[in-house]
Design goal:
2% strand; MetI-like fold; mainly alpha
Length: 293
Amino acid sequence: MTQREIADGKRAIGAWPDALLTVAAWSLPTAFILVPLLLFLVLGFFEVQGTDIVYHPTLKNYVRFFTEPGLLQTFGKTCLVGLSVAAITVVLGYPVAYLLASLGGRTKYAVTMLFAVPLLMSYIIKIYAIRSILGGNGFLNRTLLYLGIIDEPWTFLIFNLKAVTLTLAILLVPFAILPIFVALERIPRNLLEASADLGARPLLTFLTVILPLSLQGVVIGASFTFVLAIGDFVTPQMVGGSQAGFTLGRNIYGQFGYGNNWPFGAALSVILLLPVLAAIVIADRFGRARYAI
């Protein structure tokens, strides 16, 4: 056996671990993400007759979505809530991320971890906590009544779409803070120093250097919160009320639950996936834009 044949054999043996790692890396997302999505897509083309699923291809579920009164309006309302939550979380999260990025040494990372701690808490407990603050007899109304700012409790902050939007924004704001913080951290400090040396004031430096270079984090954070908001069904159910807080996520939950119409629920899930994919594509394309460092 020649030296070249021995070297080729060693390369072939060494390629096996890389091949196994590649298969393992792709098998998990395929099994837990791609396959369920394909099953939902296929299930949406069947229908329910009585209590049984009829496995005969049909477009009735998608026709029902476009023809049944209220469904298109609910879909639009759900997307509007997602966009509102994305805008609010970015507006609230950017100043916090900017403050964190301006801290020195290890302090910034320690404080950043504090903003990530709420992500480890129970989602239901956080919703109940917000309800106890915004409710008619909650902490906010009691405080305002005690201070004499209002004469009677505010009721517009609970059991309506405003409450859903506000609650989701509070719950999801860490998902906007962290990407913006990372984008701000990646901005080279010598660019800021060069801007100052050229006579630019802090506001001008922010508008012409910091903000454009951090837009990547803004778009990613907004995409995160938008995707999480439009798919949420627990928050609308707990703080939205029976009608005012009805979203497509609640409708999908109802179809898989008491409605017992899995094919229609799967079709609605596929429809709700479209704005999610649009948000992901926008974030991905923007992430490769000229602002990236």
